[in-house]
Write a structure and sequence with these properties.
Helices cover 21% and strands 31% of the residues. The protein has helices at 2-48, 139-146, 159-167, 198-207; strands spanning 55-57, 62-65, 72-74, 83-87, 104-109, 115-121, 151-154, 172-174, 183-184, 194-195, 220-222, 236-240, 247-253, 258-263, 266-267, 277-278, 280-286, 288-290, 296-298, 303-310, 313-320, 329-332, 339-341, 345-351, 356-358. The longest helix has 47 residues, at 2-48. A hairpin with a 2-residue loop joins strand 20 and strand 21 (313-320). With 359 residues, it is an alpha+beta fold. It has a single domain (79-359), classed as YerB-like (YerB-like fold, 3-Layer(bba) Sandwich), CATH 3.50.90.10.
Length: 359
């Protein structure tokens, strides 16, 4: 009886061992088939996948040029609703905060020879801890903000700007009525101490039920010139807005293929010491006049001369803006639309009588 039981146990054990090996072999075969399928079909799939215009492919997902600055980003980050913030440039308000993080910046005269910035943000705006000092609105800046349908962020403004904000239904965020999205820095004197942040502006977009995406026509963008195609030697741009304190210079960096901005003879930096750099610098000559004894007006819906600096070279061209809500486009002398390098662009708005010095 004992012998029978032992034989039975050996039989059962042998069956189990056989079954175990069968399972191991099946698993191995399935794994090999899976690997071969990935190699054969996966590689073919990657090979046959074509990026749509304005996109590139990587191993994870397709990337698309961001509408505001042409930088390649994941598709769901390509066109966040833009925000335009008025930032002060009075000597006593320096240094600014968050200006180096803007995707696009307009600089123009306000009054008394002082310039002011309108900085546009999209994409990673929410990560910017401080933006400012925030200052007042001017009517011609509204015409540029309307090109993007941007949330226009400011504190107060000129009488003409208040009229135009209502008249043209500007998507407006005035600190006078929306203090919850701003704060005052007690370590700086008023009125040069008003700040906001990317996070607060994201809340403002949400609370005002802004569309998730922007609704505007993007400029054309290109891949930047290779190092061997970039010019050697110093390439500088000098813009005299008024006094030395508002003298602007850009110095071309061949290695980085961008322009380092100087103001009043020093490298222009944010409060956190971040240098302000641009991939493209545009000098746009605009007819400028006095609205009253103090405030300026500009003919923004017109056309005129423009200088476009990119890749260490200058293109002599022109600009055109056909209507208040239409984009300002830039063209070369042959009438072709300018293709910008992906990255930050600074638009320097200067009166038509200003001479620009450049190499």
């Amino acid at each position: 009886m004992a012998k029978k039981n032992d034989q039975a146990k050996e039989y059962i054990w042998g069956k189990r061992k056989s079954k175990k090996w069968v399972i191991i072999i099946i698993v191995a075969v399935v794994a090999i088939i899976g690997i071969l399928s990935y190699v054969i079909f996966g590689l073919n799939l990657n090979k046959d996948t074509k990026a749509t215009p304005g996109t590139i492919s990587n191993s994870q997902q397709a990337l698309t040029r961001r509408a505001l600055d042409g930088v390649y980003v994941p598709h769901d980050q390509a066109n966040h609703h833009p925000v335009a913030v008025m930032i002060e440039n009075l000597v006593s308000s320096r240094p600014p905060s968050g200006l180096s993080k803007a995707n696009l910046v307009y600089e123009a005269l306000a009054e008394g020879g002082i310039t002011r910035f309108m900085a546009l943000y999209s994409g990673e705006m929410v990560t910017i801890p401080e933006i400012g000092p925030v200052r007042s609105a001017r009517s011609y800046y509204l015409d540029w903000a309307l090109e993007f349908g941007a949330l226009y962020v400011h504190v107060g403004g000129s009488p003409q700007s208040f009229t135009d904000i209502k008249k043209y239904d500007v998507f407006d965020l005035n600190q006078f009525y929306n203090a919850q999205y701003f704060w005052r820095d007690s370590e700086r004197p008023a009125p040069h101490n008003l700040y906001t942040s990317g996070e607060l502006l994201a809340y403002a977009l949400r609370d005002n039920e802004a569309a998730e995406t922007g609704d505007y026509t993007s400029w054309q963008f290109k891949d930047e010139a290779k190092l061997s195609e970039r010019p050697a030697g110093e390439k500088n741009i000098i813009i005299d807005f008024s006094s030395f304190n508002y003298k602007v210079e850009y110095k071309y960096d061949r290695e980085k293929n961008d322009y380092l901005r100087y103001q009043a003879g020093e490298i222009h930096k944010d409060k956190d010491e971040s240098e302000i750099r641009a991939k493209n610098v545009v000098v746009q000559k605009v007819k400028t006049y006095l609205i009253d004894q103090e405030r300026l007006g500009m003919e923004t819906m017109a056309e005129g001369e423009a200088l476009i600096f990119r890749d260490g070279q200058v293109i002599e061209g022109r600009w055109e803006k056909k209507s208040r809500e239409e984009r300002t486009f830039f063209y070369d002398q042959g009438g072709d639309e300018i293709e910008f390098n992906a990255g930050v662009t600074w638009i320097e708005i200067v009166p038509t009588d200003r001479d620009i010095v450049y190499d």
